[in-house]
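Escalated from tier 1: magnesium ion holo job.
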Amino acid sequence: MSELDLLELRQVSRQFGSFKAVDEVCLTVRAGARHAIIGPNGAGKSTLFGLISGTLPATSGSVLVDGQDVTRLPVDRRVGLGVAATFQHSSLFLRETVLENVLLAVLRRTGAGLGGWRKVSARAATVEQARTLLERVGLPARHEVAAAELSHGERRQLEVAVALATEPRLLLMDEPAAGMSPAETARLTELVAALPGEVTVLLIEHDLDMVFELADTVTVMHLGRHLKTGSPDEVRASAEVQSAYLGSVEAAS
Ligand code: ADP
Ligand code: MG
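Tier 2 regenerated the structure:
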């Protein structure tokens, strides 16, 4: 691990019974990277994210964030260290408004809790932060509607705002463009491209156009294993990757 690596996975594995969904994966993610993970369905990508965010414990191996071993830490402790995730399956409070969803996330981070919230000045500052985040993800005119009323693409934007509210150093995004229209995907791509350099992005994505537009580094997973990591051009040109992944996509479509 070099000083520039924000995330390091050391032979990390996750078994479900005797099945190895993630099989001794070693991977480093440089601070500031736009790093994508691709691979066919069932390759173990989402499981790997669970091991990084802490929603799933590793069976063996270790996960280090900024040199600190977080393998046994629960999700909220990892959030405290700057790891935030947007999930493939939405985790929003659908009955609360758009603004409330972001406010809850800001309050959780600042630890102001509801005690601090009683101070009018703290409340105004928090609302201001939440509104700024919503504008950044492109949801300025939709603050007061319930999250349930948002379109699919808008929900994904809101999820990004909720994740950013925790001020992450590492943002994990699991198939953010899934189910989005081309226009929504383009918007999301712009949003991720515009994130500040201090936010390291690790992205699982099926939409290869989005991957090749955003990523500076691409990792290919196959059958739970780390097949290859390289620049987008290297990965595209790799015969091994083409037969394992790109070939199987073409075969499927
Ligand atoms: P990907 O995100 O690359 O499509 P996943 O990480 O979701 O792949 O799944 C990898 C493999 O692990 C799949 O074969 C899946 O069926 C299996 N798997 C995932 N989660 C579980 C679970 N909770 N119990 C049993 N098997 C699982
Ligand atoms: Mg998945």
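Residues 9 and 27 are 5 Å apart (CA to CA).
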